[in-house]
Fold:
Amino acid sequence: MNKTVAQASVAIFLCCGVAFCACAEMYIGDDGPSGDTDSDSDSDSDSDSDSDSDSDSDSESDSDSDSDSDSDSDTDSDSDTDTDTDPPACDSPPDDECFSLTVLVEYEDTGTWNGTECVYGSSNIDCPYECDTGECIDDPCLGIVCDAPPPDECISNVLWSYYSPGTCSGGTCSYPHTETACNSPPADTCVGTTAWNYSATGTCVVDQCEYSHTETVCPYTCSLGVCQGCSMGSNVAPSAVGTISSGSTDQITYGPGRLNDGGLQSGCGFCWIYTGTSYGGGAYFRYSWGTAQTLWGMWVDTEPSSGSGCAYSAGRGLEGGDVQWWNGSSWVTDGTVTGMTNDWAYYQFTSPVTTTSIRIYNAYSMSVANALIYEWRVYTCS
Structure:
């Protein structure tokens, strides 16, 4: 290669650093006769011409190349963007949710991309107690023992009394109870000799039924809330004076003195009066005292319906009559006795009476007229 060619080659290779395509053409186009050393002018002319031509060609080529390069670059860039973009991570599943009161829907942490959206797998979990706001919650009653019932209370005047054990629901204990209407007062009672008698209907106050009561001071004794007249005391008949409506003319043998002489049926001494065998007629046996006596009751020893063997006595037992006491101005009937077939053991006054006189009025006999009494005892209160 001559010097000229060598220089041209150098220039061509330097040009290759700028535009490869132009350089190649120049490099190929520079391949002239290697022995033509005399044609410098031609060579220069040719070189210039070629250079200009090549320059224009290179310019156009560069323009085309740039145009093609830009076009290719744009096209390739768009194609790469559409084809090479990675799908989303699909790592944001929806919140777990309650499908029902006891079923939880739990979503997987990672989903898959279907070209349009992320799809997450899920599973249903049975909650042992309850599902609430997207999670299974434990039974709030675990570990709770319902053994502390609330205090009794009044609801609409009815007493509610709670008792153990209770039951737990939702973490709260509830207790069974009884309902008591305030209509069961306590039993009447006695405080010393005072009778306490409770009203039938009470009032529920705070946590109990309360009942009002009356207090009665008993003159003698009290039992189970009831004033008792008294207990049987001593026989005061011996200190009384006996009288009758009418009877035997032999007052010594059969008169009222026999009523309280201490003799009984066994002695066959008796007092009799004119009577019929039925109630009424006004016949009577009577006792009187000089001072007032408080009396409990009496006992009458009379002829039994079966007979006693005493003379003149059969069928003449005292069958009945009115028991009366004198109140200072009139006779008060305490009770009427009927149908007796033997002794009156015992007749107790309805309540103790304080009097100076008592009598058996409208007396009548069993089956034979003229009733009789062997002994008539009267007892005081004690």
Remarks:
- The chain is about 20% helix and 35% strand.
- The CA atoms of residues 140 and 171 lie 5 Å apart.
